[in-house]
Write a structure and sequence with these properties.
Strand order of the largest sheet: 10-11-12-7-13-14
Largest sheet: 6 strands, mixed
Strand content: 5-15%
Shape: elongated
CATH architecture of the largest domain: 3-Layer(aba) Sandwich
Distance between the termini: 65 Å
CATH superfamily of the largest domain: P-loop containing nucleotide triphosphate hydrolases
CATH class of the largest domain: Alpha Beta
Radius of gyration: 33 Å
Number of domains: 3
Helix content: 40-55%
Structural class: alpha/beta
Number of helices: 17
C-alpha cells in the first residue's frame, strides 16, 4: 500500500470497494497507479462498456459460475475417495463449460466498442472452437448423460449392506401411506431421520459408490480417464486472468453506483501529462461521502481550477471548515484517475503525475529522538528532494509547533522550493501570507455562514485570505466581539 494512502483516506476507500471480494485479491490493482495515458484510456473504455446493464449482468453471471467452478475444484483437492473425487471434478467441468459457452454467446450478441472487450471476444470465439474445449465439452455432456442412467438398489440387513443393479422393484411407499391414513389421529411425532446432504462422504457411502462402480465398470472407467486427462489442465489461463481482472472494474462501478443514486456525479476526466491547467467541478471526498451516505447526511461538493502559471492551492480559513477534506479530495481525484477510474465530479481535467507525496501532522515518536518541528523539517526536506516537476505534494498544517514568526519564515523557504520545482500542490496552512506569495499560488478559503460565523458551510472558494473568519470565530468563542464587549462595559 502506498505510504500516502492513510493521509488521503484512500485505504478506507479501497477497503470498501474490495469488501467481499477477498478471493480475487484486488488490492494490488489499486496499489499500482498507471503512468501511461493509453492504458488509462483503455480502462476507461472497459468501465464505460460495463455501464451497460445487460453486459454487466452477463459478466456477473459468468463470474458466479466461475466461483462455483473454483469451489468444486478446491473440494476435489481435499477429498480422499477416488470415485467421489472424480465425480466432483466432472461437476466442476460442467459448470465451467456452462460459464464459457454462456459468456461467449453473450459477447457475440453485445454491441462492444472497447478494445479490451473486442479482443477478449475474439479470444473466446477461438477458444470455444478449439479442439481442446470442444473435447472437454463433449466428454462432459456424454458422461453426465450416461451417469444419469445408472440405477441401483441398496439392501441393508443388520450390519450387512449389499449393492446390486436396480431390477424394477416396486415402490410401495404411496400405497402404505394411503392404507394407514385412516388410522391417523391428529398431529403425531415425525420419527423420520433427515439424511445429511453435503459434499462430504463417509466410509459406508464410499464403499457403496465403489460397489456401484463395479456394477458399471465401463462408465466409471470413462470417468476415471476424464479425470486423468484433464485434472492437470482445466481452467484456461487467459480466461482465469480475465475472471479476476474484470472484478476490479465491477467492484469500482458497483461501489460508486450508491453515490450516483444519492445524486452525486462521476465523470471520465481528461488526462494531461504536460499542461498543468487542471479543474474539477462538483468534486468530493469519496471516503467522507461514503460515511455521510451511510449516516444519510448531505455531501458538500467543491470546485477548483488552475490556469496559466498557477500551480499551488493555499487553503486557509477556520478550523473544522473542510480544508483538510479539500486537500484529500485533490489527492484522491489525481490518484483515482491514474487507476483508470471515473472520478467524483461532473467534469474534470487532471494531471498524470509521476509521484504523489503527502505531509500531514504526525504524533511524536520517542524512538527517533526528534521534536515535532525537527520532524516536520526532515520529512518535508526528504519530500522535496524526491519530487520532480511532475509530482504532486499535499501539505496539511505544517510547522504548527513553532512560533508564528518562525512558521512564516520556514513556510516561505519551503514555498520557494515548491515554486522552483513548478509542481502541483495543495497547502493547508494558518500562514495566510503564503496565499499571495506568488502568481503561482491560488488562495482558497473555507467559508462560514455570514449571519453566523460559527457555522461552517464546508465550501472552499477561490478568494483572497482575509483572516476574518478566524478572528470572528475566536472572538465569539472568548466573548470579545464588539457586541459582547459593549454589553459587558455597559453601566
Amino acid at each position: 500500500m502506498p505510504t500516502f494512502f492513510v493521509d488521503l483516506n484512500l485505504n478506507q476507500i479501497i477497503d470498501a470497494i474490495t469488501a467481499g471480494r477477498d478471493n480475487y485479491n484486488l488490492k494490488p490493482f489499486f496499489y499500482n497507479p498507471l503512468h501511461d495515458e493509453g492504458t488509462i484510456q483503455y480502462r476507461h473504455e472497459i468501465m464505460q462498456e460495463l455501464e451497460n446493464e445487460t453486459l454487466m449482468e452477463n459478466i456477473k453471471s459468468f463470474a458466479e459460475k466461475m466461483v462455483v467452478t473454483r469451489r468444486y475444484l478446491a473440494l476435489v483437492d481435499k477429498l480422499d475417495f477416488k470415485t467421489f473425487k472424480e465425480g466432483w471434478f466432472l461437476e466442476a467441468a460442467e459448470v465451467y463449460c456452462e460459464a464459457i459457452t454462456g459468456l461467449a454467446y453473450d459477447l457475440t450478441r453485445a454491441n462492444l466498442k472497447s478494445r479490451g472487450f473486442l479482443a477478449f471476444r475474439d479470444y473466446m470465439t477461438n477458444y470455444i472452437n478449439s479442439d481442446g474445449f470442444i473435447s472437454i465439452l463433449a466428454e462432459t455432456k456424454r458422461l453426465k448423460t450416461v451417469l444419469a442412467t445408472i440405477k441401483y438398489s441398496v439392501i441393508i440387513n443388520g450390519l450387512t449392506v449389499r449393492v446390486r443393479k436396480y431390477e424394477g422393484e416396486i415402490d410401495y411407499s404411496v400405497e402404505v401411506e394411503q392404507t394407514f391414513e385412516k388410522f391417523k389421529q391428529g398431529v403425531v411425532k415425525d420419527y423420520r431421520v433427515k439424511l445429511y446432504e453435503g459434499s462430504a462422504m463417509n466410509y459406508v457411502e464410499a464403499q457403496i459408490l465403489d460397489f456401484v462402480a463395479e456394477l458399471y465398470p465401463d462408465i466409471f472407467a470413462n470417468l476415471d480417464n476424464f479425470y486423468t486427462q484433464h485434472h492437470n489442465y482445466f481452467l484456461d489461463e487467459t480466461i482465469s486472468v480475465f475472471d479476476r481482472e474484470i472484478q476490479f472494474y465491477i467492484a469500482y462501478l458497483e461501489f460508486i453506483a450508491r453515490f450516483k443514486r444519492a445524486g452525486l456525479k462521476f465523470c471520465y476526466p481528461q488526462i494531461t501529462h504536460t499542461s498543468k491547467e487542471i479543474y474539477d467541478y462538483e468534486g468530493f471526498d469519496l471516503a467522507l461521502a461514503n460515511k455521510l451516505i451511510n449516516e444519510r447526511s448531505s455531501v458538500v461538493c467543491n470546485d477548483f481550477y488552475l490556469k496559466d502559471k498557477e500551480r499551488i492551492f493555499v487553503v486557509s480559513g477556520p478550523n473544522q471548515g473542510g480544508k483538510t477534506t479539500f486537500a484529500r479530495t485533490f489527492g484522491q481525484l489525481h490518484y483515482l484517475v491514474c487507476l483508470g477510474c471515473p472520478v467524483p465530479g461532473k467534469e474534470a481535467r487532471l494531471f498524470l503525475f509521476d509521484r504523489l507525496f503527502t505531509h500531514f501532522e504526525r504524533v511524536e515518536n520517542i524512538k527517533d529522538l526528534r521534536g515535532k518541528l525537527e520532524d516536520d523539517l526532515v520529512r518535508i526536506h526528504d519530500t522535496l528532494n524526491q519530487s520532480t516537476s511532475n509530482s504532486i505534494i499535499i501539505i496539511n498544517e505544517i510547522l504548527s509547533s513553532t512560533t508564528l514568526k518562525d512558521a512564516i519564515f520556514l513556510s516561505k523557504e519551503v514555498m520557494e522550493k515548491l515554486l522552483g520545482l513548478d509542481l502541483l500542490a495543495v497547502w493547508v496552512t494558518f500562514v495566510e501570507e503564503l496565499a499571495s506569495f506568488s502568481e503561482k499560488t491560488v488562495s482558497m478559503v473555507s467559508t462560514v455562514v455570514p449571519e453566523n460565523p460559527a457555522l461552517r458551510t464546508f465550501k472552499i472558494v477561490r478568494k483572497p485570505a482575509d483572516g476574518l473568519s478566524y478572528a470572528i470565530t475566536i472572538a465569539e468563542k472568548y466573548g470579545v466581539t464588539y457586541k459582547s464587549l459593549k454589553e459587558r462595559i455597559r453601566p
